[in-house]
Design brief:
single chain; alpha/beta; Spore Coat Polysaccharide Biosynthesis Protein SpsA, Chain A; five-stranded mixed beta sheet
């Protein structure tokens, strides 16, 4: 049904624990999914052997040794066994509501994503216990925090939809926002599945990155990603989704906030309209006013 692909960090200490939790949750999805791991970081070969999943060790990297999004997406789509793809970060746990939610979406093409729940998990999950998911959901309900709509940790899309991706560095900013922008620029429906899918992000440090968290969001790799994405005007997120997945199927987002982001994106997606000739200075003032009224933070 679904080919899941990702690239893990080295399987050391806490990062190793949470990545093993995540990958095992993917393997246990039913119906069974194909899982592909890219890269040759420490411990990847053991995880691949343990769970019997596919391994592409020769992932193309930039001069800093960071895997490239473009290479992973191309290879994954070329070798996938299924027509539906899912990129997911290697610290994300997927549960039994994931596949049924995706199955609600009929027709192609489309892009599905959603918000994640951030939670601290220090120990390996005992997946042999039949109630592991019940316990985890209770833990998230008590201690978890819903991440803002700017956080993007998974994408579901039909195989072949994403070709010609710029050589973004994985784990650095802007590339995930570009994925949303690209779908919108192709007039592909972007579906927010937050209401139907509980996606769990296991909190972690940034010791795997030189200069830590600052090194992730700043520095030459981050600057290059932002430039490749085309700047801040292409920094789309879940606020730019065109449809919401609900218990009653797909619905259009018709709140003032949804309409605002739809209007805002017109200047990028349909520049020939230029908001029907409204002067740019007036649009900037209007945009700031609406953002302030809605409490929307600038990307």
């Amino acid at each position: 049904m679904l080919t899941i692909f990702s690239t893990p960090k080295p399987f050391r200490n806490h990062i190793g624990v949470i990545q093993t939790n995540a990958i095992q949750s993917w393997v246990l999805l039913s119906p069974q999914c194909e899982v592909i791991l890219f890269g040759n970081e420490e411990g990847t070969d053991k995880i691949v052997a343990q769970f019997g999943i596919r391994h592409i060790p020769e992932a193309e990297c930039n001069e800093y040794g960071t895997p490239l999004v473009s290479d992973m997406f191309k290879i994954a789509q070329d070798i996938a066994s299924y027509p539906l793809m899912c990129y997911v970060n290697a610290d994300i746990i997927l549960m039994s509501d994931f596949l049924p939610a995706i199955c609600q979406v009929k027709g192609q093409p489309f892009l599905i994503s959603g918000q994640r729940w951030d939670v601290d998990l220090k120990e390996p999950i005992d997946f042999d216990k039949p109630d592991w998911e019940t316990y985890l959901r209770a833990h998230v309900a008590k201690y978890g925090k819903l991440h803002p709509r700017t956080g993007l940790d998974y994408f579901v899309f039909p195989r072949g939809m994403y070709r010609d991706i710029p050589p973004f560095a994985i784990g650095r900013p802007a590339w995930d926002n570009w994925v949303i922008y690209k779908a919108r620029s192709l007039a592909v429906p972007v579906i927010d599945a937050t209401k139907m899918v509980t996606v769990i992000h296991q909190n972690h440090g940034y010791s795997h990155v030189q200069m830590g968290k600052v090194g992730t969001w700043e520095g030459p790799e981050a600057e290059r990603n932002r430039a490749l994405a085309g700047g801040s005007e292409h920094s789309f997120n879940l606020n730019h989704a065109t449809l919401l997945l609900t218990h009653h199927g797909l619905k259009r987002g018709l709140t003032i906030k949804h309409l605002y982001f739809r209007l805002e994106s017109m200047s990028v997606l349909a520049p020939h309209l230029r908001f029907l000739g409204i002067p740019k200075k007036i649009l900037i003032v209007l945009s700031k006013t609406i953002r302030s009224m809605l409490g929307i933070a600038k990307n």
